[in-house]
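ENTRY TYPE: paired fold submission
RECORD: A
CONTENT: sequence, then structure tokens
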Amino acid sequence: MQLGTVIGHATATVKHKSFTGWRFAVVQMLGNSGQPEADPIVAIDPLGSGPGTTVVVSSDGRGARETIGDDHSPVRWYVVAIVDEVGK
């Protein structure tokens, strides 16, 4: 699991059938210092986070597939929590 900031949302008109009805969040990963790190990722967002929200994302494919409800889904990243406050 890793912290990230939602920088937007993605829309896909052509997608795997398991993604129908799910919201995609574009998440900028954060390093230990809280600064942006690496390239943004796209994650399934079952929690409805908004731009600027700090979230916890997981790359556990099995957990993501359980969230989606499809054992054959190509999903990898998903939002597991919205952070109320980041400690300093």
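RECORD: B
CONTENT: sequence, then structure tokens
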Amino acid sequence: MNTVSLVGSVSRRAGGLFESVRRLHQELMTTGLLDANGTILPAIEMARSIRVSVLGVEDEFTRDDSAAWRPVPLYPLCRLGPRSLNYAPAMLPQLSRLDPELLHIHGLWQFSSIAALLWHRRTRRPYLVSTHGMLDGWALGHCRLKKRLAWLAYERAHLQSAACIRALCEAELNSIRALGLSNPVCVVPNGVDLPLLDTQPVASSPEDPFGSALRQRKILLYLGRIHPKKGLVALLQAWAQITQRHTPWLLAIAGWDQNGHEQLLKSLATRLNLEWIGPGERVRPQTSVIFAGPQFGAAKQRWLARCRAFILPSFSEGLPMAVLEAWAFAKPVLISAHCNLPEGFTCGAATLLQPRKDSLATTLAELFSTPDSTLERMGQRGRSLVACRFSWPAVAADLKAVYQWLLDSGPEPGCVVKN
């Protein structure tokens, strides 16, 4: 089986998609396939049975981040024109050279949608689309006019022609159906790796830039894109409303800035009289907020290891990798319903919040009064949840079964929902 995936970016610029798409493809290369009778093939036969390659647009971080994709074959392509479209003229010629039996597109509203549709019309071969939360109400309302034009020009035809659409959760399935799309949909979540907690870097690492003052504080961590949909304006407003100077809690906002939103948040923090610092600055007793900047690899793991709790007051998500990663580190999480992880509330690993100032302030006050032992039990329940529900081998096995079904070489998987 020869497959190719199209992504907008193959670097950290893709945000959570960099982690989820990269780890998915690495696992696709190592997880067993099923034969026609539903039996797992031996590893040596499996290696001959599937090939995965990834095409994506090159940017300023591609050279540094390419090694993280190994052993997945990666083909970075030059971009022409605006970043929002990610037009790569070499994409179609490269697809012809790789000659895949099946195409998998990650994300919408970019040239990869056009390329997939043109490739399909020329070859009549199937393709699968992972929408990654880009069809929910908030996402469609953001840059509404541009998306409406793209929908009419190419995106509707691209989605309607897909042999299957992948939803990360039940809510995303509902968003797909709400647009009148009747394609088969496979519900396959993102996955996460479980770290060995007793071997992870801790706050006392020599690389810790904040010193002992930070280790004396309880950190509430946000980790992700710095973007309006993440609810960080309301979070800062609530933080200013509920926190007092010298509180043991400190808010850390770590992530990649998008379109200058981080500067807006810093200006807001100043107006709210919140003492804040940037990357590398020393924590003082009166420090209330850290804007920690982008965090990747070991640096991201240090933040996840040292925080006491994790928060994502988002207005729109597919299935957020950052929450799964926080659970993998046995951290309790405070999340909105838009994070599409209801199982976290069911098992007692998450606290439900509303991404509004007054409601957030109430949730924060409850967090501050929760005993450490209770937070630790919540975190352990989250770790158990990702171990049984969101492991990468299970995710890759489900998706490989979908691939085989689309190529008429396997039975219809149980994760497929037909209209």
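NOTES ON RECORD B: The radius of gyration is 22 Å. Residues 43-48, 199-204 have pLDDT under 50 and may be disordered.
STATUS: closed
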